[in-house]
Structures are given as structure tokens and as C-alpha cells.
TrEMBL record:
Protein name: F-box domain-containing protein
Start and end residues of each F-box domain: 1-47
Organism for this UniProt entry: Rotaria sordida
Amino acid sequence: MKFEQLPNELIFDVFEYLNAIHIFRAFYGLNSRFNKLLNISFKFYHLDFRSVSKYTFTNVCQQHLPLIIDKVVTFYLADDDETPNLPEIFLSYNFTLDKFIHLKSLSLQSIRSFDILNKIILQCHHLSYLTHFKLIQCLFNNEENNLINNIWNLPKLIYCHIDDLMSKGICFSKLSIISSSIKYLSIKNITCDFRYLSHIFEQTPCLQQLCTTIICTEKNEKFQTTVPLLTNLNLSF
């Protein structure tokens, strides 16, 4: 049996494991049935813009994304060497993250502009399904603490992963927003001391799991904060 002879339900099962870019590249234009399945019937797209050519990016944004933007559930946007300035180009097409109304997971990597990064995060504040957020190898400046506060202010966020920020030093002691939704937090390749750690717990009272690296700045430094809901703590020294 050929793939195109499979019932729609089985085709959808396969599509759920594929990047939307690969789906459109392989199946769009084959026949009217597949075009209808992709533009109308299929409900959940995973869109990953890492390591794509500018031609592919432009094609997806102009031809396909306007038709599926409310069906994208995971979105990965990166500013890498293969396609530099991708986030700026994305926003120049007048896309805003608040239009991704069913987005559940957002990953941002290697974004060099603080203004672009902060703009994207602010656009997510009204997303009702956004529970997963990753920030990886992004460039911060002196306004970095405002960005962290904006992340903590995402109303439905449960899983937060912050990794390898190219910053002069992120200061969690200035975190002023309390998140009652974040339960799982990973802070990779960024060091903080017990004072910062205590403040993170205070501003994230529902935290159940934390993974991070600790630097002891003083002898006999003690951690005195009570974290009633914490069930898993992974500290590297």
C-alpha cells in the first residue's frame, strides 16, 4: 500500500512526529487531498526553524504559516549562522506570537537582540496554553532582569529551561515577579549562590523540581528557605 492510500487518521499519526517544514516540503502540492489535509484538517503542527535556508523560511512564512498559525503547538526559533537575523525577518512579516493561540511550547535560541527577545516574550503573555519555555544561548544586556521578570510573568508557564546565557551576569536577586505556575525549573550553565537560590524559591512558591549550579561565596553559607512543594533538587557545585 502506498502512503497516500492510507486513511487520514494514520497519516495524521505520522505527521505528529514531523517538523511542519518537512511535511510541507514532502507532501504539499502532491494532490488536492493532501493540500486540504495540510491546510484544513490537520490540527497540530510542530514548527522548528533551526538550520533552515532563507528560501525555505520565506516559503513557509509566506505560503503556509498564515493558514496554520492557530494550529502550531510547538515553535522553535533560532538566530544561527545558516540563517542569520531570522527572528527579525520573522517579525518583519508581521507575525506576532499572540496569534499562535494554541502554542504549548516555545524555544528561543541564540537570539542576539534583547529588544527582539523581549518583544517575543511579551507577545506570549496572553497565550492560554503555553506551558513550556526554553531560552538557550541568548544575548542579554543591562536589561536582563526585566526579561527574566517577563518570563516569570507568563501566566500558564509550568516548565522553564534557561541555558547558557551570554550575559555579564544574570541577577536573580532582582526577580520581582512571583510565578504561581512554574513547577519545573532548569538553570543550566549559569551559576548562582544560595542567596539567589533562596530568592528564586521565594518568587516561585509552587516549584517542585529545580536543577542548577551553585557557587558558595562564603564559608559556612547556609540555605535557610523552606520549600514545601519541592520534591526534586539537583545541585551542582
